[in-house]
Amino acid sequence: MGIKKFEIGEVPRRDCSNCVTDIVKFRRNVVLGVGSLDSKVVFIGEAPGYEEDKQGVPFVGRAGEVLDYLLFKNDIERRDVYITNIVKCRPTLAGKNRKPDDSEVAVCSPFLLNELQRIDPDIICPMGGVALKFFDSSLSVSSFHGKIMKWKDKMMIPLYHPAVALYKKEELPNMVEDMKVVARELEKVS
Known about the structure:
Layout (H helix, E strand, L loop, with lengths): L22 H4 L7 E2 L5 E5 L4 H6 L6 H12 L8 E4 L6 E2 L2 E2 L4 H18 L3 E4 L2 H7 L5 H4 L4 E3 L2 E3 L7 H4 L4 H18 L1
Parallel strand pairs: 2-3, 2-6, 6-8
Antiparallel strand pairs: 1-3, 4-5, 7-8
């Protein structure tokens, strides 16, 4: 099955069935990005979780609470940023969240590229390994979190996925510091 080419600004339909996996059988919602279309920064996760699938909005579950905390600690308003995922449907295995597979990323990534083209942010923040590997498969979040890098003509600042703080509370101070880098760079481009 080939990857469909999408027009700029096109979003997945609620009845999207492009994936070759069972992801569409178990999802409730296609979860599109939210936030300011004039944002200077885009935060990109890997895929919706249970709450995101239920509500149809990215980062509204427990990981979303952590993201909200990180933004708050750095005086960044959620309404001023754009938040999305690479994969727009919740990948599950036995009812639990799982990482999206390569075919799911390949099918959904044109939507992400459309979002980036439409918003044209100065800063891209891939959150977690799946998101970072989409932009550069040679990088790991553990080695490059909080570092300023380039992707095409954009500044890229990889971040740990907010869910990391739920399982490794000791990483939260590092995550606050990484978001401080984003806040500092955001101030420069605003």
